[in-house]
């Protein structure tokens, strides 16, 4: 098995195919990683999220990363890490970007959007406030075996 570095173009193609990514953030020297459903365009990774620890931490330290992979088996895989900056997309100032994010995410992640909406209605819990954010990609690295 030979490992090779992926080009930025290959990395972006893998990011755009990915449905789930592992979002890494950190606060006061403590890393934190959670899976999130993603959609990407050329510059950014979009996420629809509930408020909680990850948002608090990314507000405090917007330098984040996100990892995705495509694993066929132990000898055929690729993995991409995108480094970037967290940016929240509140209304009304990011109306256009929210709409763009919603459209991209809705193509694949209706289950997650619906799950959040249902939880919010069922619990009447304002902490289940839906929000959009993006990671503005600064750089990408990738490794793969094919
Ligand atoms: C396939 C998949 C897709 C997902 N897509 C999204 C998405 O698009 N948007 C989104 O907001 N969330 C998504 N989630 C849920 C996400 O991984 C987090 O669990 C959730 O967002 C809560 O994170 P938080 O930091 O707000 O946690 P909080 O509700 O603030 O809870 C913090 C505490 O719970 C623990 N915790 C939180 N999440 C996890 C976890 N996943 N695994 C283990 N411990 C955890 C933390 O260690 C911490 O102690 C997805 C999960 C899966 C499995």
3D architecture notes:
- By secondary structure, this protein is of the alpha+beta class.
- The protein has a single domain (4-140), classed as Pnp Oxidase, Chain A (Roll).
- 30% of the residues lie in helices and 45% in strands.
- The chain has helices spanning 8-17, 53-60, 95-106, 110-123, and strands at residues 4-5, 20-27, 30-37, 39-40, 44-50, 63-73, 76-88, 130-144.
- Strands 1, 2, 3, 4, 5, 6, 7 and 8 form an eight-stranded antiparallel β-sheet that branches.
- A hairpin with a 2-residue loop joins strand 6 and strand 7.
- The longest helix has 14 residues, at 110-123.
- The structure holds flavin-adenine dinucleotide.
- Flavin-adenine dinucleotide (FAD) binds at residues 20, 34-37, 47-50, 52-54, 112.
Based on CA atoms alone, the radius of gyration comes out at 16 Å
| Largest sheet properties | 8 strands, antiparallel
CATH topology: Pnp Oxidase, Chain A
**CATH-level-2 architecture:** Roll
Helix content: 25-40%
Task: Give the helix tally.
Answer: 4
């Amino acid at each position: 098995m030979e490992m090779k570095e992926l080009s930025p173009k290959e990395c972006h193609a893998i990011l755009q195919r990915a449905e789930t990514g592992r979002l890494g953030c950190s606060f006061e020297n403590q890393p934190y990683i959670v899976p999130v459903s993603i959609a990407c365009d050329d510059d950014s990774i979009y996420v629809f999220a509930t408020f909680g620890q990850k948002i608090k931490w990314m507000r405090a330290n917007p330098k984040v990363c996100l990892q995705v992979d495509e694993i066929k088996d132990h000898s055929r895989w690729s993995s991409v890490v995108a480094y970037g900056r967290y940016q929240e997309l509140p209304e009304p100032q990011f109306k256009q970007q929210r709409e763009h994010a919603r459209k991209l995410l809705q193509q694949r992640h209706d289950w997650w959007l619906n799950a959040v909406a249902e939880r919010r209605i069922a619990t009447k819990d304002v902490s289940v406030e839906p929000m959009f954010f993006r990671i503005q990609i600064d750089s990408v690295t990738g490794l793969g075996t094919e």
